[in-house]
Amino acid sequence: MGWSAQNNNLTIVRRSASHAVLDALRPIFSARRSANL
Questions:
Q1: How far apart are CA 13 and CA 10, in angstroms?
Q2: DSSP letter at 37?
Q3: Which residues contact 30 (CB under 8 A, 6 or more apart)?
Q4: Where are the alpha helices (H) located in 1-37, listed in sequence order?
Q5: Each residue of 1-37: pLDDT tens digit?
């Protein structure tokens, strides 16, 4: 049971980290897209 809980926490951390990266890259991509236009 301890392993499943640890694995679940790792999945949550990984998911939140990917969301943070996407949120950080979103303004860069939007700015680049407007610059291309």
A1: 5
A2: -
A3: none
A4: 2-36
A5: 577 888 899 999 999 999 999 999 999 989 998 988 7
